[in-house]
């Protein structure tokens, strides 16, 4: 390339996209480990399958678009998209559902919009939302039951067979809905203590899920510590969700409690790994605060009063829509200049 | 305005100025009802009928209606034809009429029809206007059928289901189901599938146009012995 990559004067060295993406993958390992421990081999198989397919689809699209294949594959972004999909899809989802999700993410949401840096929507979440709308049965009932898995876990080979068999809901014996889904559907006719008797909630917040979320939280803190992401989006994301939950859902007999919102769904994965995608998120720090808070509030709204039990994908996509608008109103002040004025004509205009 | 030859009108309506693929007009019914082939044909035929009628009528009155009140007059004409189409569908294909519901009366607001009335019929004699209405309607109908076919096939794994609603009992056995255990892809049945399907169809059309253009440019003959501009040496 003729353009040498230059770092800002205060950064010691330039960080390549490829390097950043490698660290993102490493940071997701604790969460993936917790998923494998509590939900079986399914997630690991999904991650490998989705990553391989994502890289393949990216290479094919680059070839069709006559772009340098090696140069773009080396930035690892396609692999991260596949990784995020593998982490968020249910462990025992049929292989063709994850394949459709990956192809929609890479082909439709990323390459057709012009490749890395040009996609207005988070590719992984486009793929996830597409299969969630298309195959509700496969997408909501295939979470492995952690309680049963402890006693009678399907091994690596059995899990592979289940995924490869392609049935949408083949194994009722050890699959079930997510804790959030379960709570939402049962709370209307029972009290909170009765609902929490169910084995899926375990002794803590939600069996297994709390450790998965803790794993993603740890990985996210690593990314923060390495300054690969800034604190603005995760903090405002979690704050938006928490404030909504405390303001409207304090009665556990009617709504899922705050602890469940934070630790029982895809919250931490969303806050640290998905919403922080630098391409589709807002740009300035002020804009990131608005963007993250919007996602948090939308997640609570959809989870509580919408049709879907978990809502990270829809909330992220809806706020992706709003990013150009947010960026327009929150340009940072350039050093040595006044803050640019935007919006309704004020006294300084004309 | 220079009058267009008949072959130009035909090519415009079906391809170069296709109301759905190039003008991108009339999207509301296009996206809303193309979930199956039979819905698409039903709505496409109704639109075709209205488009021909309104183009003919607008062309006939073009010298008697003043410029300032032409749009209300056009809308009245279109509304009358839509009412005719609606009553006809109620009489002959009542079940399809019920499925299409509000989108039959909504043909009044289809910009493709008002667009043709204002851009073509009000400036041309009746016969070319009638031909233009027919060709534009046919172009719209083809896109509707293509989109309906894609969405029905990908969404439900079937093709030509319920054709008897439109064509009578002889078409009741036309339904095709290529794969026996096909999972429903709800996404393609819902509106986002229509947007993506239409986007891909437009891309396909532009791709074909580019191919044709490239092929034409490649055929330009270079005579042996002719010189390039500012380049010494001969083309062998």
Features:
heterodimer, A: 350 residues, mainly alpha, two-stranded antiparallel sheet, B: 236 residues, 10 helices, 0% strand
Biggest beta sheet summary of chain A: 2 strands, antiparallel
Helix content of chain B: 55-70%
The coarse silhouette of chain A is: globular
Oligomer: heterodimer
**Unreliable runs of chain B:** none
Proportion of beta-strand residues of chain A: under 5%
Q: What's the β-strand tally of chain A?
A: 2
Total number of strands of chain B: 0
Quick overview:
Helices cover 61% and strands 1% of the residues of chain A. Chain A is mainly alpha-helical. Chain A has a domain at 17-176.
Overview of this structure, please?
The complex is a heterodimer of chains A (350) and B (236). Chain A is an all-alpha fold and 350 residues long. Chain A contains 18 helices and two strands. Chain A has a domain of 160 residues. Chain A has a two-stranded antiparallel sheet. In chain A, α5 packs parallel to α7, α6 crosses α7 and α13 runs parallel beside α16. With 236 residues, chain B is mainly α. Chain B has one domain. Helix content of chain B is 63%, strand content 0%. Chain B contains ten helices and no strands. Classes of the chains: A mainly alpha (350), B mainly alpha (236). At the A-B interface, α7 of A face α9 of B. Chain A: It comes from Marinobacter confluentis. Chain A: Belongs to the NqrB/RnfD family. Chain A: One of its GO terms (biological process) is transmembrane transport. Chain A: The complex is composed of six subunits: RnfA, RnfB, RnfC, RnfD, RnfE and RnfG.
């Amino acid at each position: 390339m003729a353009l040498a990559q230059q770092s800002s004067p205060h950064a010691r060295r330039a960080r390549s996209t490829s390097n950043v993406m490698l660290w993102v993958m490493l940071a997701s390992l604790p969460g993936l480990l917790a998923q494998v421990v509590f939900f079986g081999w399914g997630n690991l198989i999904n991650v490998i399958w989705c990553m391989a397919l994502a890289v393949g689809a990216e290479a094919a699209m680059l070839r069709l678009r006559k772009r340098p294949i090696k140069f773009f594959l080396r930035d690892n972004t396609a692999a991260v998209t596949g990784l995020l999909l593998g982490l968020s899809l249910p462990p025992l989802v049929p292989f063709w559902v994850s394949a459709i999700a990956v192809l929609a993410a890479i082909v439709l949401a990323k390459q057709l919009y012009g490749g890395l840096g040009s996609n207005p929507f988070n590719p992984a979440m486009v793929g996830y939302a597409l299969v969630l709308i298309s195959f509700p049965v496969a997408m909501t009932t295939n979470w492995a039951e952690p309680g049963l898995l402890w006693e009678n876990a399907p091994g690596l080979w059995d899990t592979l067979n289940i995924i490869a068999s392609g049935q949408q809901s083949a194994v009722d014996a050890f699959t079930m809905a997510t804790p959030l889904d379960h709570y939402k559907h049962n709370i209307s006719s029972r009290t909170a203590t009765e609902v929490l008797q169910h084995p899926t909630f375990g002794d803590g917040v939600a069996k297994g899920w709390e450790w998965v979320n803790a794993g993603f939280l740890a990985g996210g803190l690593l990314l923060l510590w390495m300054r690969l992401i800034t604190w603005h989006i995760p903090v405002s994301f979690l704050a938006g969700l928490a404030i909504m939950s405390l303001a409207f859902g304090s009665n556990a007999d009617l709504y899922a409690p705050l602890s469940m919102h934070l630790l029982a769904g895809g919250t931490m994965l969303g806050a640290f790994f998905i919403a922080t995608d630098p391409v589709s998120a807002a740009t300035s720090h002020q804009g990131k605060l608005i963007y993250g808070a919007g996602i948090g509030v939308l997640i609570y709204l959809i989870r509580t009063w919408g049709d879907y039990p978990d809502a990270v994908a829809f909330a992220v996509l809806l706020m992706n829509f709003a990013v150009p608008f947010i960026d327009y109103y929150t340009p940072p002040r350039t050093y040595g200049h006044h803050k640019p004025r935007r919006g309704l004509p004020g006294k300084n205009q004309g | 305005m220079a009058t267009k030859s008949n072959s130009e009108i035909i090519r415009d309506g079906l391809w170069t100025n296709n109301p759905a693929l190039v003008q991108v007009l009339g999207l509301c019914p296009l996206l809303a009802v193309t979930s199956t082939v039979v819905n698409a044909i039903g709505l496409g035929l109704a639109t075709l009928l209205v488009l021909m009628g309104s183009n003919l009528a607008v062309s006939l009155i073009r010298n008697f209606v003043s410029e300032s009140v032409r749009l209300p007059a056009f809308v009245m004409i279109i509304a009358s034809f839509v009412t005719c189409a609606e009553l006809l569908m109620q009489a002959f294909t009542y079940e399809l009429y019920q499925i299409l519901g509000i989108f039959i009366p909504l043909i009044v607001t289809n910009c493709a029809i008002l667009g043709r009335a204002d851009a073509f019929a009000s400036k041309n004699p009746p016969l070319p206007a009638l031909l233009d209405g027919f060709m534009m309607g046919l172009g719209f109908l083809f896109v509707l059928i293509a989109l309906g076919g894609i969405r029905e096939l990908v969404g439900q794994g079937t093709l030509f289901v319920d054709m008897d609603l439109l064509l009578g009992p002889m078409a009741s056995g036309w339904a095709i189901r290529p794969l026996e255990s096909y999972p429903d892809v709800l996404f393609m049945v819902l509106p986002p599938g229509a947007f993506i399907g239409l986007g891909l169809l437009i891309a396909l059309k532009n791709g074909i146009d580019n191919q044709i253009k490239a092929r034409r440019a490649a055929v330009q003959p270079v005579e042996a012995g002719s010189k390039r501009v500012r380049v010494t040496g001969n083309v062998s």
